[in-house]
Fold this protein.
Amino acid sequence: MDSSAEVVALVGVGILLTALYLQSESFVDPLIRAIALQSLLLGVLLGWLAWTEHSVDLAILAALAVAVRVLFIPYVLRRQIRAFRWRVRELHAAHRVTGHALAAVVLAIVAWFVFQETLASIFPEPGAALPFILLVEGLLMLATRSNTIVQVIGYLEEENAVVYAGALFAQAFPLFVEVVVFLDVLGVVLVGVILSIQRDVIGTPEESALEELAG
Amino acid sequence: MAWATQVISIVQAATVLLLAPLIAGISYRFKAWTESRSGPSIFQPYYDLAKYLRKETLLPEGSSRIFYVAPFVAFGAYLLISEVVPVITPYPIPFASTVDFLGGGLLFGLAGTVTLLAAIDSGSNYAALGASRTVSFAAFAEPTLIIVFFAVAVITGTNNPYVTNNLLAASTSAYLSPTHLLVTAAFFLLLLAETGKLPVESAGAMEFGMLEDGRTFEHSGRLLGVNRWNGWLKQFLLYSVFVNVFALPWGMSSAPTAEGTLANVALLLAKLLALVGVMTVVEATLAKVRLFKIRDFLALSFSLAVLAVFAFAVLGVP
């Protein structure tokens, strides 16, 4: 394995580590920082691929990833948790930390076996399973969490997985840039508009529980 | 040069036995500095040891021979471990071929188990509480240790710590591989738990959260002295394995000569000092986690170890 592939592998495992951290963390604020870190790692990966393959498309994507996913969306999310009042932590999640961490590891292994059985013949490169695993981890997060912001973070993780997969397999694909831009816009709309509407119109199922504790 | 390696194996055992209290004393001193105290002399553990060995030994009523024998069995186990892991040599010394990594782990297990039996045998509630707590968390720590061994075996294709040391010292790409970095992180977390460091355990006899120290509550005099020494030996050996096999495998002289061995001892001390410095920073910056949160801590360590083996499977390189 040459040194370029080794860098890609190291950053990939770093992204996987942040995915496992996201599963086991129950506080919302560190989750936002963790998804920003995951996006930063993805930005580094895109930047590295742009550097080694002299690709302007990938360089634009790296800059976009850092600007939108590392800086803008986490900023908006943190404003949201200030407005939402349930900023501290997801309710009833604290005692599930061990279970979530182990479930995430088990799911990663299962996802890898599924990948080996299905897609490995099309994408035989080492590390090709990592975006797929990231996608499944994001789905697990969406399925197991009840807090809306945490679910949005799960969605952002899914986006990261798609961008990651695209960066590994479809660098020369101009459509890829457009898909990523579209996903970014979708993400911004999601965190900026839909969360606000939900707050104002529907409220949150956790609000009554929190008010009960307000004293 | 067979006699030379035999002499070196004796030097290695002596190094472990004599320097283990020193490393403990240095860590107490470092810790005192972070608390703005000048702290005890770094030789305090030696003075303590001399005092314990002179004091009268009291046996609890109703305890059996296990209570008396256990500290010495554990001591013997640690002495044997000091002959089978790379402490001051990057090449195997005569005893090293008796066990591999897993065997070393089992010897640590033997020492821990006899100490537990002695704690239960004492009939004291406090000692039994310490024993039951230790076991409940060891049940989460041991699987991690086994997976760490798997990951080491995956990197080198063998379960011999000397091979691991040589491979990592020679190959930067093996050292920087995700598998090795993750397994080093997992082993470091395990090291914190096994040597009774914060955030898992805060040492001191008045601590309700204590685990390891609780087991030796009823020992006194010479038995307490040997038990304390065992604790320092365990810490020294685990630190040595961590620096020589995982974190800092470089620089050991492979010449079985007097100068080479002396240089290796000095190098080991330097590496251990660096590790003690890191441990002090960890202890000074982290708060103790609640007792039942230790499980989360160990689950994290386990996840990292599993991920290390998994990274090998996914990426296809060690």
User: Anything to note?
Assistant: Residues 2-315 of chain B form one domain.
